[in-house]
Amino acid sequence: MPRCLVAGLMLAGVSFAAPGDGLDGANGHIFKVDAEGKHFELLKETEYDPKTDIGKSRFTVHWSDATVVTRLEELKNFAGITEPVAAAFYGIDKPNQQALEAGEAFEARVAVLHSGSDLQAAGKSLEGKQGVVGWFAPSDGEKPRGGVIEIKGKAVPVSLRQRFSRIYHHQPLKSADLATGFWKATLQGSEEDGKFVVASMEVEPLPDPRKTDDPKLPRVLVIGDSISMNYHDAAKEALEGVANYHRNEGNAFSSAHGVANSELWLGDYKEPGFQWDVIQFNHGLHDLKQTYDKATDTFGEYAVPLDDYKANLEKQIAILEKTGAKLIWCATTPVPNDNKSQYARRKGASAEFNAAALEVMKRHPEILINDLYGLIGGSPVFDGWRKQNDVHFYKAEEKKVLGDAVAGAVKRALGKSG
């Protein structure tokens, strides 16, 4: 078995292109794979032409026989890894680093496995992080979280920490196999004869809604920040048997982020199985963030000024309306009390942003309003919540009230009672 690279191997990170510099280093979702023609469509964060203010998020990407495709998947344990694989371990604290250097059992926070690769490929996983690379074989058992790694010819026991640990698995994938799944991708490549050709790409499998949705039910998309994460499960449960419920990937953050990413979140909505019947959207709590000066006890400017906020909403509405879905604007939930931390928010700011949003919505009377702000203000369920300054909702009863309200708005948009 090949010798491992020395412990503490340090490698420089990969340099990614900034937005607007092209597709090299771009992230996005893959659609319409043409295996015979060797190309697909990539949906990524919108890039804006400052002269026309017109955004583009759909790009045609080509591959060649030399293109290297790697499948990346996060694992819960090492089950299914039956042969020794090249692996990198990092996130090793000082006591465990000392144990590692002594050839004794150690713990790590992150494991990156490279099936079908050599130690050099595994070493690139460190990208400037201090760690160790070697040939790794998992322990026996149903859900192993450790094993042995060969270091300088010696098998050293290694395990993952009980909390906050991660396992990433890289596997080679044929380019043509892209047509058999639904993927998120990171590209590396260059322009050739007016076409962007991928030299290598890393792909992660995504749930395919065509396989998981009930085709008899309408499809609903919720675009929102962490508040929509709070009520996600409750709303989805309340709409069971009524609609296929989805929300944007990650956090929708500010209205500017929403404009840049809506095309990505919408996906290939013109294709069967990807269409949207109802879309609820909200931005606000990240727009209304302010700086805070402790010395003068004063709040600074909003992260997104109100006029820019309204302009962003108009741009986002134009993007969402292209789907033909019934739109719902969800009012921004309150800031219960002043928060003077690094991410300061002022009590009353949500009311100002909701008033600005309503100015925009009056120009679009076809858009329904889901007034979560008013609901929270008038419900005793939130009496305890109103005494603190955290904008999030953690209690099950709070989540249920919000989830039921979202489900009710969706049902109204679908023309259903209840």
Largest sheet: 5 strands, mixed, barrel
Classify the oligomer.
single chain
Instruction: Please give the order of strands in the largest beta sheet.
Output: 1-2-3-12-11
Poorly predicted segments? 1-21
Mind telling me the C-alpha Rg? 25 Å
Mean pLDDT metric:
91
SSE pattern = EEEEHEEHEEEEEEHEHHEHEEEHEHEHH
Ends: how far apart?
65 Å
Structural class assignment: alpha/beta
Query: How big a fraction of the residues is strand?
Result: 25-35%
Percent of residues in helices: 10-25%
**Can you count the beta strands?**
19
Number of helices: 10
Tell me, briefly, the overall form: globular
Task: Note down, in words, how this protein is organized.
The structure is a single chain. The chain has 418 residues and is of the alpha/beta class. Helices cover 23% and strands 32% of the residues. It has ten helices and 19 strands. The protein has a five-stranded mixed barrel with strand order 1-2-3-12-11. A hairpin with a 2-residue loop joins strand 11 and strand 12. Helix 5 crosses helix 10, helix 6 packs parallel to helix 7 and helix 7 crosses helix 8.
Task: List strands and helices in order, with pairings.
Layout: E1 27-34, E2 39-49, E3 54-75, E4 85-90, H1 94-101, E5 106-108, E6 110-114, H2 119-123, E7 131-138, E8 146-151, E9 154-160, E10 166-173, E11 183-192, E12 195-205, H3 209-212, E13 219-223, H4 226-230, H5 232-238, E14 244-247, H6 255-266, E15 278-281, E16 290-293, E17 298-302, H7 306-321, E18 326-330, H8 349-362, E19 368-370, H9 372-378, H10 396-413
Parallel strand pairs: 3-12, 5-9, 6-10, 13-14, 13-15, 15-18, 18-19
Antiparallel strand pairs: 1-2, 1-11, 2-3, 3-10, 4-6, 4-7, 7-8, 8-9, 11-12, 16-17
Helix pairs in contact: 5-10, 6-7, 7-8
